[in-house]
Amino acid sequence: MANKWLKRSAIPEHISEIVKERTGMSEQELLNDVKVYHINNMQEAIAMFTNAAIKREMIVFHTDYDGDGINCANIARNLASILGITDSVKVVVPRRFSDGYGVQVRHVEAYAEWGCKVLILADNGIAAIEPVKRAKELGMITIVCADSTVEAKAVACMDPDIVLAEPTDLIGTGKVADDSYTIETVKGLHEVNPNVLVMIASGVSTADDCYNVVKLGADGTGATSGILNAPSPAQRVHEMAEAIVKAKKEK
């Protein structure tokens, strides 16, 4: 199987083996990117990026100076070129020893001066508490994502504008979390931070799903595969929007 993938992709066999070991993807899944929407919060990231790209808003990719980060930087540059938005996309590869690891407050401040509207972190495994705080001070809307209720409560302490909570194992499955997850997460977040807005997602694919999530206390929700796989994506978005508005009015 590895040899077949090697021949199709022209990627060294040892690299393909590493990729398969780390992602758990089968040959066909790897070739077709079937699992890309299963990555936690991928749908929200795609929506934010698409919206900024259409509006020609400044998008900054903050990467890292290692194998993963440099590859991410190269992919970002190629993507900007393909989409014809190189004038509104900046890719930053910090120097590890002089700039430090991960996004820093000074980076956020510099990007704000550039007019950055969307900041994408690639291969930056840190708890960006101070950068999120500074981003808010600079007028940027901050959204922090989480998996479990416990994790959501922890990131709410960072005081972002929005916490988006969704069980990772349900992403892209069409199966929403049970009502107790939504109720407990909303309640827990408001106990920690009464001002934070709460979005609950994962597996949301119908208007009824959206209605139920908001009716249970969430401020909003999100979906990708449920929209893209619908017979009419535009109609599905319209139905979902109406359901959310209806639930908000009835709360």
Annotation keywords:
single chain; 251 residues; mainly alpha; 13 helices; 11% strand; disordered N terminus
Average the pLDDT over all residues and give the rounded result.
Answer: 78
Approximately how much beta-strand content do the residues carry? 5-15%
Alpha-beta content class: mainly alpha
The largest sheet, given as strand count, sense and whether it forms a barrel, is:
3 strands, parallel
Distance between the termini: 53 Å
Q: Provide the succession of SSEs.
A: HHHHEHEHHEHEHEHEHHH
Binned, the helix content reads 40-55%
Low-confidence stretches: 1-9
* Strand order within the widest beta sheet: 2-1-3
What is the number of E strands?
Answer: 6
Radius of gyration: 19 Å
> Count the helices. How many?
13
Backbone shape: globular
Structural account:
The chain has 251 residues and is mainly alpha-helical. Helix content is 53%, strand content 11%. The chain contains 13 helices and 6 strands. The chain has helices at 2-9, 13-23, 27-32, 42-55, 67-83, 96-99, 105-114, 129-137, 149-156, 179-192, 207-215, 225-228, 233-250, and strands at residues 58-62, 89-92, 116-121, 143-146, 162-165, 197-200. It has a 3-stranded parallel beta sheet with strand order 2-1-3. The longest helix has 18 residues, at 233-250. The radius of gyration is 19 Å and the shape is globular. The termini are far apart.
